[in-house]
Structure formats: C-alpha cells, structure tokens
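Practice problem 4.
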C-alpha cells in the first residue's frame, strides 16, 4: 500500500469531526426525488428480484425482512436461507460458527465473509477462523451466494459467500433511533443519521449492545455477559457517473465468555451454569476497518475500485490447565478433564466442581491481525456477452504474543486473585503472513430463454511462518533453525478453479437452473482443501408465491482442517497444524417457499425453509484432528436436516407479528462419534409483535426460545456440553426522523 493511502488511513479518525460539520451544514429539508431513497451500497447480488437471474442459488434478506424480528444474532437471520448450518456457542451470535452446504463449521473459516464486498475475516488467508464477525444489529441487509457464482468472490469457494450490507447513506436528511431493553440486564441502542446535499452525502451510525449474561458461575459468581460497541462513519462524493465513498468502522468488545462447556453430569444438573474456574475468562477485542471505494461508468464500462485496511486485536483470556497431575492423578487440560469426568472419574468431576484444591493456569490467547489490500472489477456488455473481470491484491497476517497467569482454587471452590504473570514465553508465539493475488473472469451469454455463465478464478498466494524465541521482553527475536524445526518456513500456492452455470426460462413462472464449479479453501502452509460441486434446481414465481428447490453435491478430493482450540480435536500440542481427512461426499436437498395470504383486512406472510444433507467421509483414515475415521462416518456438526417455518400477520391498523419455529437435526461433534459427542435434534420457537403508533414510531416485543427449551445444542470443544439461550424477553421502540 502506498504512503498516501497509509497516511489517509492513519488519520481517518479526524474525519469524524469533519463529518459532523458536514452534516450540520446540510440543508435538512427533504426534497422530492424520483431517484432511489439511498446512495447504493456495494452488493454482490442486488435486490431479491436479481436472485431470479442468478446462474446458481442465492438469497437476499432485505432490511424489511430484518425489521420483522429485530434479530441481532446472524445465526437466527440465516435460518431464512436453506443450505446453511450454524453451531451456537454463547447464545448471542458474537462469534458464529457457520457452514454452507457441509463445509467445516468452526468459526465460519470455510465461508467467504464480506462487509460491503470487502473481506472481513481477521486474516482471510492466514487465519480465516472468524473470531471477529460484523455486528449484526447494525447491518442493513444480507446476501448469500451459493453455487458457481461464488467463484467470483473467494478465496473460500466450496460452500458459498455471505455479504453483509452496511447502512447506506440516505439521499435526503433522515435517521433512525432504536432502543431495546431486556432480561439479564440487556440493553441495545442503535442510531444513525445521514444526509445528502448537492454532490456530498454522509452518515454517522452508533450501535451499543450489552448484557449481564444468562449463565451463572458456580461457587464464586460473576458476570457472564458482554459489552460491544460500533461506530461507523461514511462520506460520499458523487459527480455525474462517478462516486467516491469513504467508510470507517471502529469496534470494541469485552465479553465475559468462556471456551469451556460442561461434563454431562454437570449439564444434567444445571445446563446454564459455568464452572467456577472460568470466572476469570474474558474476551477483549478491538479493531478498525477503513475503506475507500470508487465507482464510475465510462461509456459501456462500469468500474469499481476499493482500497481497504482492517486491523483487529483480540485477547481471549481463558482457563487452560489444572496443575493436578501429581496430587490427584488427572490430566491437566480442561477439555481432557471434562472427558475424564464423562468417563466416570470422580476426581475429575470434583476438580471441575471446585471440590478439590488445584492450581489453575490461564492463558492469554492474544492475537494481532492485519488484512489490507485493493480490489477492482470492470464489467461491460458486448452483444450477448455480459463480461466481468475482477482482481484483488492483498496481504494479511496473524501475530501471537501469549502469556500466562495463575490462580489457586480452594477445596470450597473459591478462587485466589490472579498471580504469577509470565509473559512471552510460549513456543506458539509466532508471526504468520500471507501475500495473495487473485483474479476472475465471468461471461454471461444471453440466448433468449437460455443464459449461460462461465467463470474462471486464479489464486496465487505466498505464506511465511516465523516462530519467535522464548525469551521474555517486548523485543522478540526471530530464530532460524531450519525447516526441520518449523521456525522459519515458506509456502507458495497457485490454484485455479472454473465454473459453469445455466438458467432456462421454461415459461413465465418457472426457471430451471444447473451449475458446476470447482471450489477451494486455502490452508496455511499446506495444500488447499478442494471439492467439485454441482447443483440442479428450479425457481417458481407467480404473484406473491415464490418457490425454490435445489439438489446439490460436493465431492471432496481433499478434506482439510486446521487444529484450533475450539475444534476439540486431540491436536492441541500441534495447534494450527493442517490435517487431511481424505475424501468426502456431501449431498442434499434445499427447499424454500414463501406465500402471502389475505383475508378480512389481514395479510398472512408464510415462509418455509428446509435442508436435508448427507455428509460422510468417503475413506478411512486416522489423524490427531479427525481421530479414527471409517468410510461412511458423518462429517462433524452437519445435521441430517434443518428447517424453519415463519408464520406472520399484518393488520391494517399497524399491528403485526411473527412466529418462527426452527428445527435442527442430530449430529456429532467429532467424526468418531462417542457417547459424549452426540448432539440430539433440537428446536426453538421465537415470537415477535410490533405496533406502528404512527408513520414514524413503532413499539415491539420479542420473546426468544418461548418454550424455554434446555436442549443440548453444542459440544465445543469436543465433549463440553452447552445449552441454548433460555427464554428471553425484550421490548423496544424505533423512531424514524
């Protein structure tokens, strides 16, 4: 990145003051206009109508859709799209685990995640596991892309891509204020205001969300909630067919969250309790995202160019080991201790319950991430050909600087203050870097009723892994001992993929869709994960009725996984190593339908989504990550089915409501599915009610998990059982101004 761009980013905080001055100087009188209500945001699909023309499957969740349930959890929002599976972790969607069409679910690392078309994973090539996810409560709309069209996005192109669209700048002065309060001390404030005058437009947005949490902490008590805040500013200059948009997001979060689940005995006794040893567990993160986007038209060519820089830091301070080998004869690691308790060890359960005195070791899982670069695409129409060329040049990195602290757990479960800080002495302290260039070509040929899209993508990335010396102090030194010690290693990958998609207008109401694409997921320092993917489907649309049905297959020639703490695999000593699971087959059926019924002045919207999936290993293998796998074993965390049904009503008097029932089929946390890796089928019911008091003000009530189900919905890591969020009520109001 050039010096001008770096200087621009480093001083961008000053633009907040300038932006307020611009807004204050605008003429606040709304003017009639035949144009769109907003200055367009960066999209990969466009509107819901544009989905019909996709040479593949996809979905758009509009702002109107999001307003119905006022969800702040992306995992609940995505239940409206078939083919997507989620693993809930802390109940709020802060760090979602998302799978599209059977990709590995951990931290959404196998899904391309973007905000306004820019990659937002902390380090998409080096460490794609998304410990950061954009704050869903401030998102304006969501796009999901599956099938061959995802080759235009990348770098993860097997399952699909998710693009989150931020609040656009309004063309006339306007804003919104939303205030929510709820159980467990929950508060949420979301407000934005924007205006345009002449060639200039600007927007300021604030989102604050906090809760005390719903879990209790055994023996010692404490907070299990979170406090998260976002500030976004946008400024736009438009002249004729050219526009320039500056965007900055500042984010900060403190969450009293834990990796640790429960033994089965503890879960049966109280599923919404945490062990006293986790009282000090805390996630602290902060970051800045800055982008500058140019859009322009030159005769028959449309150009979009974006330069961005994302910096993100997180420190997940968490219980790691119990130093009890010599005294109590149990294994140290917290997850091994849970496994031992599940297998009948009374000592292991007593340590977890705080009934035996032990020293507890806590680790600062401290990471610094960078993600910066530029990308552009050029599109044109030449006869029957709609051509697009895209290019991306970027760098990302992950730096680890980990430290340890200790506390003593007494036999009555009480904890001493933290002591014995030991800094920068961990062998996992390291710097990993990736430098990547990619480009794609896409050509849609219009033959009347038949449209054919062909695509090609090239990925070229170099990666470097350096381990630091163990000596303490702020000035770490690099140790070069050769590749045998894996201290200073390099890897280069070149990979190309292609795609084919076709749509055929069978009649005015039915469109047939077929597609094939090669997909890949980059793995750090190893060969990429690869799969051939196909889909066959149809779309039916008539009046308010819309139906889609797709069959899909993914044939993995190389299933790959990176060892992480959250995966729960037996590879913690080799964390971040890449393991091969051999070949795998994933296939399934997706159905989505929506209808609008009317009667006696009341409209009844209905939507149904259903996915059935068969995801299995195609060969036997054994590794520290996947364990002992036999051909035919199910892939972890991919349930056999999932469905959502939403039934609502809209009354002429401004009263409306929705009921959403979600059912998730059974699955396992590990391939070699033992008794304590099983996750039974579960469900939840959410209700919402909204009343428009006038044209500008609404009040609403939301009841999550209405039946207060206590189902076991996750075992992460490995055998640690977790329950779903309890029944939670929140009320709020929104004002447009």
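Answer key:
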């Amino acid at each position: 990145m050039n010096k001008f761009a770096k200087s621009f980013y480093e001083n961008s905080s000053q633009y907040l003051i300038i932006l307020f001055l611009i807004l204050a100087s605008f003429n606040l009188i709304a003017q009639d206009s035949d144009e769109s209500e907003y200055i367009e945001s960066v999209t990969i699909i466009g509107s819901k109508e544009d989905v019909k023309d996709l040479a593949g499957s996809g979905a758009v969740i509009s702002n109107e859709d999001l307003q119905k349930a006022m969800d702040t959890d992306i995992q609940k929002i995505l239940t409206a799209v078939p083919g997507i599976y989620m693993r809930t972790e802390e109940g709020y969607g802060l760090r979602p685990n998302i799978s599209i069409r059977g990709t590995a679910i951990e931290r959404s690392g196998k899904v391309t995640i973007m905000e306004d078309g820019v990659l937002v994973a902390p380090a998409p090539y080096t460490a794609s596991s998304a410990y950061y996810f954009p704050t869903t409560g401030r998102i304006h709309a969501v796009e999901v892309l599956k099938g061959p069209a995802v080759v235009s996005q990348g770098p993860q192109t097997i399952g699909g891509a998710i693009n989150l669209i931020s609040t656009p700048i309004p063309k006339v002065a306007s804003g919104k204020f939303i205030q929510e309060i709820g159980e467990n001390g929950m508060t949420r404030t979301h407000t934005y205001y924007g205006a345009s005058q002449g060639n200039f437009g600007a927007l300021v947005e604030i989102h604050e969300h906090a809760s005390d949490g719903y879990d209790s902490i055994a023996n010692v008590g404490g907070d299990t909630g979170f406090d998260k805040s976002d500030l976004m500013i946008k400024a736009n200059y438009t002249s004729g067919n050219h526009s320039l948009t500056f965007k900055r997001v500042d984010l900060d979060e403190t969450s009293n969250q834990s990796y640790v689940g429960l033994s089965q005995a503890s879960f049966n006794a109280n599923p919404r309790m945490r062990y006293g040893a986790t009282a000090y567990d805390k996630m602290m993160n902060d970051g800045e995202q800055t982008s500058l986007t140019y859009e322009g038209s030159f005769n028959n060519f449309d150009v979009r160019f974006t330069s961005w820089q994302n910096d993100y830091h997180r420190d997940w301070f968490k219980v790691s080991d119990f130093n009890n080998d010599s005294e109590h004869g149990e294994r140290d690691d917290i997850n091994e201790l849970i496994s031992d308790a599940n297998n009948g060890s009374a000592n292991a359960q007593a340590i977890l319950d705080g009934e035996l005195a032990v020293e507890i070791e806590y680790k600062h899982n401290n990471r610094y991430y960078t993600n910066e670069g530029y990308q552009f695409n050029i599109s044109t129409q030449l006869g029957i050909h709609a051509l697009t060329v895209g290019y991306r040049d970027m760098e990302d990195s992950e730096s680890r600087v980990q430290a340890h602290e200790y506390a003593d757990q007494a036999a009555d479960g009480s904890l001493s203050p933290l002591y014995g800080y030991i800094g920068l002495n961990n062998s996992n302290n390291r710097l990993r870097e990736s430098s990547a260039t990619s480009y794609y070509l896409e050509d849609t040929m219009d033959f009347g009723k038949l449209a054919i899209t062909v695509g090609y993508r090239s990925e070229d990335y170099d990666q470097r892994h350096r381990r630091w010396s163990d000596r303490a102090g702020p000035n770490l030194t690099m140790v070069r001992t050769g590749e045998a010690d894996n201290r200073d290693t390099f890897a280069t990958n070149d990979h190309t993929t292609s795609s084919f998609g076709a749509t055929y207008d069978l009649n005015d109401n039915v469109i047939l869709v077929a597609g094939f694409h090669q997909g890949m997921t980059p793995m750090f320092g190893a060969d990429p994960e690869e799969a051939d993917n196909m889909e066959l489907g149809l779309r039916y649309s008539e009046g308010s009725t819309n139906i889609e049905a797709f069959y899909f297959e993914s044939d993995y020639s190389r299933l790959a996984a990176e060892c992480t703490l959250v995966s729960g695999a037996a590879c913690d000593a080799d964390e971040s190593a890449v393991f091969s699971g051999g070949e795998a087959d994933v296939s399934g059926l997706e159905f989505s339908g929506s209808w609008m019924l009317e009667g006696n002045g009341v409209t009844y919207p209905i939507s149904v989504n259903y996915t059935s999936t068969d995801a299995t290993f195609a060969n036997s293998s054994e590794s520290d990550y996947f364990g002992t796998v036999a051909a035919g074993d199910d892939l972890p965390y991919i349930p056999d089915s999932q469905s959502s049904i939403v039934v609502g009503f809209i009354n002429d008097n401004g009263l409306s409501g929705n009921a959403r029932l979600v059912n998730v089929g059974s699955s396992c946390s590990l391939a070699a599915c033992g008794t304590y890796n099983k996750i039974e089928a579960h469900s939840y019911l959410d209700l919402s009610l909204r009343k428009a008091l006038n044209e500008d003000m609404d009040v609403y009530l939301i009841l999550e998990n209405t039946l207060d189900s206590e189902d076991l919905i996750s075992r992460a890591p490995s055998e640690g059982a977790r329950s779903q969020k309890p029944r939670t009520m929140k009320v709020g109001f929104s004002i447009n101004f």
